[in-house]
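In the previous chapter we treated chains in isolation. Here, by contrast, the input contains two separate entities that must be folded as one system, with a combined length of 366 residues.
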Amino acid sequence: MATTLKIEQLNYRKNLKKILTDVSLSLSGNKIVGLLGENGAGKTTLMRLIAGLAKNARGTVTINGDSNLANRKSLISYSDPLGGIATNKRISDVKQFYSRVYPDFDEQKYTQMASFLKLDESQRLSALSKGTREKLVISLTLARQTSVYLLDEPFSGIDSMSRKKIINSIIQWKPADSLMLISDHYVSEIAPILDEIVIIKDDKVAVHKAADEIREESGQSIEDYYESLYGEADIND
Amino acid sequence: MEFDDKVPIYYQIKTAIYDQIISGQLAPGDKLPAIRQLAVSMTVNVNTVQRALSEMITEGVIISRRGRGNFVTDNAQVVEQLKQQLITSYLKQLYDRLHRLNISDEQMIAELTVYIERQGDSNGNDIED
C-alpha cells in the first residue's frame, strides 16, 4: 500500500524563536522528496518532528492516518548520526546493535549495501572518514524495512565519489512502496533522483512541487529555481 | 548518464532510449532492462523511468508484455516513423536558428553540403589513423 505522510498545522518554537510556523504538508506514494532550505531553515527540526524525536510541537503528524507516536516510530527509519554510540565501537558492533533494537532490520540487505559501499566491519567509529561514516549511516537506515525513510543531509561534506555511491544505493535499495524524504541545502547532485521538492523558507513551506513540473513550467534547473526563490527575498530585504 | 537539469528528466530518459532504438543499439523486439536496473544505470528515480516508459508505451514504440517485461516494438513502420520525427525535429531546430540569422535557404543547403563533405574527410582520416 502506498504510504501517506500528513503534517497539519505544525508549529514549533525553541527559546521563543519560531522554527516552524503553520507547516502543513501531505506526501504520498512511493516517492523521493527533496527537502530543501538554507542552513537553519528548520529542515532538521521538521525531520525530527516527523520522526518523533523532537517534542512539544503543536499540530499533528500522521502516517496512513495514524498519529500514535509509537506506531509512527515503527514506520519510520531516520538517518541517526550515531551520536549516542561510543566512538571506540566497531562497525560490526553498531550493526549488531541495530539488528537487536529494530525487528525490521534486514541483515542480508545490510550486508549487500555494506559490500557495495566497501565498509570494513572491523573499523572503529573513531577511525571513519566523514564519507565512510555517512555510508554506514545510509546502510543502517536503509536496512530497516519501513514505510518512511528520512535522510537528513546525507551528502554534506562528502566527496563526489562517495556521494555518487550513496545516491546509487538509494536507487537500488529504497523499497519500492516506501516514501523517502532527503534534506539538503545543495541540490544539483540529487536533483535527477527527486520526484518532488519541498522548500522551507522563513519557517514555512514555500514550495511543494513535482521536480519535472518545475523544469517543464519554468525551463529552469531545480538549483536555479531554488536559488531564485531565495534571491527574491534578498532584493526585498 | 549526464542530464540537463533544465529539461524534464522523464523526457531525457525517453530521448535517450529512442536514440538507442533509432541508432540500432536496441533492435526491434529487444527486451529492455528491468525498471530498477534502468534507474540505477541512468542514476534516476524509478518513478521517473516508469513515467518515461508509460509514454513510450502509449506512443507504441515500447510494448509491455505482462509478467515478461518491456520490449522494443518489432513494427518497423513505427520505428521508421520515430526516426522521421526525430530527423524533422533536429532539422527544424537547425533551420530555425539559421533562419533567424537571415541565412537564405540556398546558402543553408550550400553550407550544409560543404560541412558534410568536410565531415566525410575527417571521418575518412580517422579510419586510416
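The two ends of chain B are 29 Å apart (CA to CA). The longest helix of chain B spans residues 76-100. Compare these points with the single-chain example from earlier in the chapter.
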